[in-house]
Design goal:
36% of the residues lie in helices and 18% in strands. It is an alpha+beta fold. The longest helix has 15 residues. The N terminus is likely disordered.
Length: 246
């Protein structure tokens, strides 16, 4: 695999690598040597063991790939433990997403729900998405199910699109919730501009693998893609909480 195709495959540039301290052990010298031919800086790559003999996990930014322990073979995809039915790759990605979500500023959310809700979710949303509107129409149902919804912006048409401008107006409104209600009704909220997190949130969603809206995430980094009705979402969240020992 060429350096160019490797970069395209993992969807990252060298500048997006995360600091890993001393995560690369001397046992991984063959892998370091192979990556050195593909990346300019391997000191920030996180390498860890897997349950599969001869295969190690390599974390590059927000992506997970696998290499044979001699550095010769690179694999992409999911590793699933068939005994436990646990997707080990998704579990590793959940840890990455959890770190990224922990860095978000809660004051930059548009929040619907109560401070004492049993569950909280982060929802990447686009006001021009039909299922996003359907979800918003049931906001009272989510609150009754004990779920607080924190919206973050994800204009599917990209930065500079009409949807992007609409989301900027929502985030810059004096009453964000009211402006979000207007946007979710298919109307255009009053035009407003300010320093806002819309571009940053959109880019974060892309980095975390969001491909559609609504995309629901827990603060443990679990993804629940698509629209899920209130009671079904509650059951999903209960299952995830039990799995995460909460």
């Amino acid at each position: 695999m060429s350096f160019k195709s490797f970069k395209l495959a993992v969807g990252l540039s060298v500048s997006s690598l995360l600091v890993a301290g001393a995560a690369v052990a001397s046992d991984y010298q063959a892998i370091e040597d192979r990556l050195a031919g593909l990346l300019q800086d391997t000191s920030q790559v996180v390498i860890s063991e897997t349950p599969v003999a001869g295969l190690v996990q390599v974390r590059i930014g927000g992506d997970i790939v696998y290499l044979s322990d001699d550095g010769r073979y690179l694999l992409q995809g999911n590793i699933v433990d068939m005994d436990t039915q646990v997707n080990l790759t998704d579990a590793a990605l959940s840890d990455v997403r959890k770190e990224q979500l922990a860095a978000l500023d809660a004051e930059q959310f548009v929040t619907f729900g109560n401070s004492d809700s049993e569950f909280e979710v982060l929802v990447f949303t686009d006001p021009d998405c039909g299922f996003c509107r359907r979800m918003h129409d049931q906001m009272d149902g989510y609150q009754e199910a004990g779920i607080t919804v924190h919206y973050v912006a994800y204009p599917r048409a990209g930065v500079g699109s009409p949807t992007y401008d609409k989301l900027v107006s929502v985030w810059c409104a004096e009453d964000r919730n009211g402006a979000m209600d207007i946007a979710k009704e298919g109307r255009t909220p009053p035009r407003a501009t300010c320093d806002n997190p819309v571009t940053e949130q959109f880019q974060l969603g892309q980095a975390m693998g969001v491909t559609g809206t609504p995309s629901i995430m827990t603060f443990d980094g679990d993804i629940i893609p698509g629209y899920v009705p209130p009671e079904q979402l509650r059951e999903r969240l209960k299952t995830l909480a039990a799995r995460n020992g909460q």
